[in-house]
Design brief:
Strand order of the largest sheet: 6-7-8-3-9-10
Structural class: alpha/beta
Protein name: ATP-binding cassette domain-containing protein
Radius of gyration: 20 Å
Strand content: 15-25%
InterPro entries: AAA+_ATPase, ABC_transporter-like_ATP-bd, ABC_transporter-like_CS, P-loop_NTPase
Helix content: 25-40%
GO molecular function: ATP binding; ATP hydrolysis activity
Number of strands: 10
Keywords: ATP-binding, Nucleotide-binding, Transport
Bound molecules: adenosine-5'-triphosphate
Order of helices and strands: EEEHEEEHHHEHEHEEHHHH
Distance between the termini: 52 Å
Number of helices: 10
Largest sheet: 6 strands, mixed
Amino acid sequence: MGAKDPEQDAVLRPDERFRGDYPIVVEGLKTSFGEQVIHDDLDLEVRRGEILGVVGGSGTGKSVLMRAIIGLQPVDAGEVRVFGRSITGAEPDQVLGVRDRWGVLFQGGALFSTLTVGENVEVPIKQFYPELSADLTHEIARYKVRLSGLPEDAVSKYPSELSGGMRKRAGLARALALDPELLFLDEPTAGLDPIGAAAFDNLTRDLKETLGLTVFLITHDLDTLHEICDRVAVLADKKVIAVDTVPNLMKLDHPWIQEYFNGPRGRAALTAQALDELRKHMDMPVAANAVKALDKPPAGKA
Ligand SMILES: Nc1ncnc2c1ncn2[C@@H]1O[C@H](COP(=O)(O)OP(=O)(O)OP(=O)(O)O)[C@@H](O)[C@H]1O
């Protein structure tokens, strides 16, 4: 548990990266809207350097949990600590030095429609580093847009001029604006075609590996869970009922988990992942034959 780690609760200097084991610790969280209790005694720890997938049925409170962690959701009970600092009940200026260490891609991107992509990325830079020159701010924004896999000319485009996939990447560029250590992604591949979704997954994994990010990733996308998540947290019954790797979760005897991971869509995602692995070894006849067999559409389908 994080409290035993001497680095866990150390106060960070602005130039220092978090070195504790758990950048996010949630203990005994309770949230509600009026009479409707969303979370009750929920615990969660996110490990440094992992991509943690967060899944659960619609309305189980995945987005509300993310909002509670970043301090946008009032909390009835419990505590949220990010980089060892308590977020619950803290005034915004008390968590300065923490808020600029995370980036958030909200569902739908949440870009300002009247600003260009570049200007959108500049917003957090200007907010947290107003002393930077306009030239340097533009340059950083341009770099983040390129890092997110957008072409150079996207910098001067408005969100309405971009495809859905490009808008997600623009939202990601803004989330990366401050060189975060922690990235929150709320359903980043929703609405993308499978090729666009796979490309976004690859980008997330590459960024995690090259920038050393910890990623809190809400998703319904089984391919994403199989392909890039180190562990997955399952929300049900107002709590996180399990956190583990996908293969370990699949062994659990919970009805929702079984239906989700071992149902037809879960099995299809697993087959797709197996095919990807086998395609890397097509020089081996056994792999080539297996790909040929598995790639056939099921009987009765065109
Ligand atoms: N601002 C709000 N006011 C009242 N109820 C809310 C508000 N935001 C969320 N809720 C309720 O909280 C519950 C959890 O919502 P949340 O958006 O976290 O679900 P989710 O697990 O992210 O769902 P989905 O997978 O459909 O996006 C839902 O019942 C929702 O109606």
